[in-house]
Write a structure and sequence with these properties.
126 residues, mainly alpha, 3 helices
């Protein structure tokens, strides 16, 4: 099987690459702490801040993927109805998708986070 990097081979390499980069960062942080005899509290703060950055990037990527699926579905419906002749996403579809997903996140994220974070699994602090 030949992977064409121009047409979609990059997503095949990103999960293993992300795993190895995260493993290298974790190992460096661990080995940086042990020889220097750092207290656990500063290391925990570092991990906590890195977890916040990771969660923010993950949620951004997930939201961008959801918006793309929504835009594709609306554009395909417009093409099927005959309102568009080419597959080019109109700007109003982009804005509508972004606003809809942002409102859905605003409306339901608090309850979801409370349920997942406290009722289903209590995550221990590092």
């Amino acid at each position: 099987m030949v992977v064409s990097w121009q047409t979609g081979g990059k997503p095949a390499i990103s999960p293993p690459l992300g795993f190895f980069v995260a493993a290298i960062v974790a190992i460096l942080l661990i080995f940086h702490r042990v020889p220097l005899h750092l207290r656990p509290a500063p290391v925990n703060r570092t991990f906590r801040s890195l977890q916040v950055l990771t969660a923010a990037f993950l949620s951004y990527s997930h939201g961008a993927n959801d918006a793309q699926k929504t835009m594709a579905a609306i554009t395909l419906a417009l093409i099927a109805a005959g309102d568009l002749t080419t597959f080019q996403v109109p700007i109003w579809v982009v804005v509508l998708s972004a606003v809809t997903i942002a409102f859905g996140t605003y409306a339901g994220a608090g309850a979801f986070i409370r349920t997942l974070g406290w009722s289903i699994h209590q995550a221990p602090s590092l």
